[in-house]
Amino acid sequence: MSVSRFFQGTSRFLKDARMTATSMNAVKLNYHSAAIRQSNFHPIGMHKDTEDNKETTYFDFTEENHKRVQMVLGRYPKNYKQAGIIPLLDLAQRQCGGWIPLAAMDKVANCCEVHPSKVYEVATFYTMFNRTKVGTYFIQLCGTTPCMICGSEQIKKTIEDHVGIKEGETSADGMFTLREVECLGSCANAPMVQLNDDYYECLTKESTIALLDACKAGNPPAMGKWGSLPMNGQVSCEGPLGKTSLFDMEAISGVDPAKTFRTDMDMAPKMDPAEVKGYMGYV
């Protein structure tokens, strides 16, 4: 190869490298600097730096949550740590008070040994993850067909008028955030809202105002016997005629609803995923 041809090839390579670097920087700039725009229920997947949410903002899991990180990752083979992205994002969101700063996403990427973009993809896809701060009480109003037919628009207007915000906004005191979402699976007790982790169902204008006032006073109504709270006096999802089935109380009286969802095994040692086939008798 002649010297001139060598330098021509090198020059072309460097030019292509500069173009690639410029393109990558543009992508990074677009993700980290573009303004947030809202759809009807979830921000578009872009990040905007704020004083408490930058690449340089510090985040780490608490000592207790570090143990939970190891417990979560222990469920998966070592070469599939990325399977832990969703539960670790949820853990980070709870630690941060209902939202996930950029630094927390980067920490999850580090724990799962993946590129941060893999975590950004997940956090921007699922509406359960909030990438901006939300209020102390995060209200998710179901607006899908059964709730809409049963009056969700009136419930939405009641919340907006009583709190003084519009859908997608947070109140000035940081107490409430309202978002309209798709079906939350409580169609039998429509209309309803999910307030943080809890379901409040069979809402009316009056019971919605009572719920909001109770939250303002720092005393949201406790969940009912079966893990939700119909606000019309129902116990569960019985209809206007009351209970019409499952009258054999002797068969179910021994069931403690508080124990139907186990938490005692959360921190228990898990089997090595590589030995699953052995446990299942496949080998």
Structure explained in plain terms:
- The protein has about 280 residues and is of the alpha/beta class.
- Among the domains are: about 35-130, NADH-quinone oxidoreductase subunit E (Arc Repressor Mutant, subunit A, Orthogonal Bundle); about 135-230, Glutaredoxin (3-Layer(aba) Sandwich).
- Helices cover about 40% and strands about 5% of the residues.
- The chain contains 10 helices and 5 strands; from the N terminus they run αααααβααβββαβαα.
- It has helices at about 5-35, 65-75, 85-95, 100-110, 115-125, 145-150, 150-165, 205-215, 250, 275-280, and strands spanning about 135-140, 175-180, 195, 200, 230.
- A 5-stranded mixed β-sheet has the order 2-1-3-4-5, with helices on one face.
Give a short synopsis of this structure.
The protein contains 10 helices and 5 strands, in the order αααααβααβββαβαα. The protein is α/β, with parallel strands linked by helices and 283 residues long. Among the domains are: 36-131, NADH-quinone oxidoreductase subunit E (Arc Repressor Mutant, subunit A), CATH 1.10.10; 137-230, Glutaredoxin.
